[in-house]
Specification:
Blueprint lengths: L1 H12 L2 E2 L15 E5 L3 H12 L3 E5 L3 H8 L10 H10 L3 E4 L10 E4 L14 H13 L4 E5 L7 H11 L6 E5 L9 H6 L4 E5 L2 H10 L1 H4 L5 E4 L1 H32 L3 H9 L20 H14 L5 H24 L8 E5 L14 H11 L3 E5 L4 H5 L6 E2 L3 H5 L4 E4 L11 H4 L7 E4 L6 H10 L1
Parallel strand pairs: 2-3, 2-5, 3-4, 5-6, 6-7, 8-9, 10-11, 10-13, 11-12, 13-14
Antiparallel strand pairs: 1-9, 7-8
Helix pairs in contact: 2-4, 10-12, 10-13, 12-13, 13-14
The structure holds uridine-5'-diphosphate-xylopyranose (UDX).
Length: about 450
């Protein structure tokens, strides 16, 4: 009974709202002075996006060469629309870059958007977040909000609150958790069109300030969820782990389909027609990668273990993801008669997904490493991710076009779903009398069209 009462109270505490009320910053205009610590994907898109919304933004990073690059308008990674957004706001003097922390002293809001990489045990390394917090605490002079954008383990924001209390700065500083859900490749578009804004805070005033910051989104009826700090942190992890589970699930369904001669594309489509399931994240592939899904899923599993929760489903999603890469490797070996020595494998796609040059935790990395160990010769092509891959595998051949990667290959392995990989000219496929085998892990090639062409040529 006690539990039931607590649940009801908790339910009312977490309210969905679309209106902005009183805020710490309400006496000022709607133009806030903001510092963003960390200029990675999240920090840079956030900084440029907030500047575009009309705020005054200073982006801070300890990496001097990165800041020098940004000051010249060069974005250190590929992200559609970001370069234009940065250049425009730098020229309008609403966006600044620096390695110094001075701007924090006079900022209304300080966002922390530094990296939180995986430790070797799967837990999340929050050292950069706490170092940023220590810097803010040492500089802080005026009332401000510390807003955590970095994905941090549940309970981190409460620890930051505790640090503030210990330094007796709790009259001046507030902590807010405002998780980021943007996807690489569509980050700018996602910033301006979020599915939801999650605001975790222990004070209504702090929460209201963040609503004011994003008031132009709220007026477009984008839902805002105001909740406590731990719930906001959990929403981020629970969302990413759910997406990971969905992908691993469809990857296992794809194996089942293969064994029972069912058409996986039809099966996924049929499932997705159910509005409760939806079509998104139901595409089988070489396993999920990137800077977030694998890392956050591991961190959630680790956090759950620490509090005695046996999260079998999340564990299984990670195991299935590793197994998926091993299965692909086994299939490649099988297709080449279990003898890869001296065989040439053309690889189309190195990025962890289309639309980005990011190769972090891309399945291509594991697969290439294993293929090399087995003596295969690799000819790789990716429209934009080759430079990043060269730093890890300088020894493989990088081609100028998808056709070059295909020439003389014994097998073509498609790993990323770039649009340009959806078609192959049958004339490019044949090298003398030889036809390479094709393994399309993303199911993007129109096989029927290709077979017809080959029959008629
Ligand atoms: C993800 C989350 O989507 C985003 O909300 C969060 O802020 C950061 O992490 P991102 O890393 O950009 O974004 O990649 P996402 O588009 O989610 O794809 C992740 C991986 O899953 C990719 O390797 C992709 O190829 C794979 N994937 C995705 C599939 O294999 N099948 C699918 O149906 C969807």
């Amino acid at each position: 009974m006690k539990q039931a009462i607590i649940n009801i109270v908790a339910f009312f505490l977490c309210c969905l709202t679309t209106t902005a009320n009183q805020s710490i910053l309400s006496e000022k205009t709607d133009r806030f002075t903001i510092s963003v610590i960390g200029t990675g994907y999240v920090g840079l898109v956030l900084g440029a996006g907030l500047a575009e919304l009309g705020h005054q933004v200073t982006c801070i990073d300890i990496d001097e060469s990165k800041i020098a690059q940004l000051e010249e308008g060069n974005i250190p990674f590929f992200e559609p629309g970001l370069s234009q957004l940065v250049t425009k706001n730098v020229s309008e003097r609403t966006l600044f870059f620096t390695t110094k922390y001075d701007s924090i002293a006079t900022s209304d809001l300080v966002f922390i958007a530094v990296g939180t990489p995986s430790n070797s045990d799967g837990s999340c390394d929050t050292s950069a977040v706490f170092s940023a917090v220590e810097t803010i605490l040492s500089i802080s002079q005026t009332t401000k909000i510390i807003c955590i954008k970095s994905t941090v383990p549940i309970g981190t924001c409460c620890k930051i609150e505790q640090l503030i209390k210990e330094k007796q700065l709790n009259n001046a500083l507030e902590v807010v958790s405002n998780p980021e859900f943007l996807r690489e490749g569509s980050a700018v578009q996602d910033f301006f069109n979020p599915d939801r804004i999650v605001i975790g805070a222990h004070s209504q005033k702090a929460s209201d300030s963040i609503k004011k910051l994003f008031s132009s989104f709220i007026s477009k009826n984008i839902p805002v969820l105001e909740t406590d700090l731990a719930s906001a942190e959990t929403i981020k992890y629970a969302s990413n782990a759910f997406l990971a589970i969905k992908i691993s699930y469809i990857n296992e369904i794809a194996h089942l389909c293969e064994k029972v001669n069912a058409n996986c594309a039809d099966v996924a489509f049929g499932m997705g027609l159910d509005k409760r399931i939806g079509h998104k994240f139901l595409k089988p592939g070489p396993g999920f990668g990137g800077s977030c899904l694998p890392k956050d899923t591991r961190a959630l599993l680790h956090s759950a273990r620490e509090v005695g929760v046996n999260f079998n489903l999340v564990k299984a999603a990670l195991e299935t993801n590793q197994h998926q890469k091993e299965l692909i490797l086994a299939k490649v070996c099988g297709l080449l008669d279990d003898d890869l020595g001296g065989k040439t494998i053309g690889i189309w796609g190195l990025a962890f997904k289309a639309g980005t040059d990011d190769i972090r935790e891309s399945s291509a990395l594991y697969i290439i490493e294993q293929l090399l160990k087995k003596g295969a010769l690799i000819k790789a092509y990716d429209p934009i991710a080759m430079n990043n891959c060269k730093k890890i595998f300088p020894e493989i051949e990088y081609c100028n076009s998808k056709e070059d990667a295909l020439a003389d290959a014994d097998l073509l392995l498609i790993l990323t779903e770039w649009d340009e990989f959806k078609t192959i000219e049958s004339s490019n496929l044949r090298s003398g009398s030889r036809l390479p085998k094709i393994f399309d892990t993303r199911n993007i090639l129109s096989i029927v069209k290709l077979e017809n062409e080959l029959i008629h040529h």
